[in-house]
Structure prediction request, 439 residues.
Amino acid sequence: MAVDLKFSGEFYAAGLYQDKTTLAKDMGPSTAFYFQRLRLNTVFVVAPGLTLTTRADIMERSWGASRAVPGTTLQGYTANVASAGTDAENQNIAFDLAYVTYISPIGIISAGYQIDGAWGTVFGDNSIPTGKVSYVYQAGPVTLIAQTGKNSAFNASGILGVGGEQSYPRGTVIGAIDNSDLSDADNTFYTLAARYAWNTGQAGFLYKYIRIATLRNPGLAAIAYEDTIQIHVGIPYVKAQFGPVAIQSEIMYAYGAHNYESAYLKTWDGIPGADGRKQISVLNGWVDVMADFDRFYIGGTFAYLSGQNPHVERQQQGVIDGGYDWNPMLILWNSDRNQWAGSLTGNNGSSANTAMANAYFYQVRGGVRPIDKIDIMASVAYAHAVVKPSDAWLYNSYGWEVDLTGTYKITNNLSYMLGMGYLFAGDYFKGTSDLNDVQ
Prediction:
């Protein structure tokens, strides 16, 4: 049987210099290094309408750096993993995607490890390799989507549980080494979405239900951290083009409940020893406008991401965030910088390393294209916290950041980019004392 193969991919090699490795004054040295990654996509055309798709990241590492110790934790950021492989595997070869697609008369069916967590605009996106089954039906300008799967970070990493439902009776002690003693430890999601497209834009709505059951160990009494979390997420978005002006907007709202089923802890309201429920209500949104006049362009972005009020029991931060795919700045909340250069922290545990949350964000940017192959862009951004982490916290301002990038398109498939960013760190990073200084 003959099988057609289609290859695509990308390779980058980059250098990074960061003059400080902490925002606390006189606390950190500089860092400088080179790094690279080869990404290879392969599509096996098994038969008309039937394909097998794989994706592998190869030699994703810093030049000359020590190799990571093999382990079980997936590469990425806790719940938002960037790979189906570990750090050590990505430094060699890590397969992130492997799924089959069948284009049937009644729709497109896919099953296997695919990208999940990306919808609508780039805002809020976390492109996570996830085991799932997907069904897509298209009728003219309308697309309907239904999906279900297991969230990778919970099931595969071995930190909080194992893949699939485990249903051993309580008190049965089995397989502590391989985590098979976790009963009902599971993280399952169900997604329904619809999209409508027209000549100059598109709009859509996604609903996602997530059920997380954590740390149900049948070998222990029902005392500690046995929780069930049920989350409903709604995400409408719109993209539209009006002549040279492009507008995109997205709203993300998550609600639900964190049920504390054990009789051990309910620390979020300071009252241990009773079962309880913590409500979830998280709202994020953004608006982005770009006017492109060929040789020059100008745009702006506003984003709001709710923060956790320390005086309310309701969870108002977490669950959803600005996403690791969205990197509006070179320093603050930049997942690429954080992956390669590490955490950038201030005083009293303050940081802006994870995806953006608890923030009002404002940015203006503009660029010129003196010739077709050169694009020069500058941006100025300001951000401040919606709420302070505690009553002792003094300030809200994350600070100002100025970025300048230049891209030269050498050929159709080869580009060179130079970027420079400067962060005027805000007083938020002083933490709880004016005696703390920032840099």
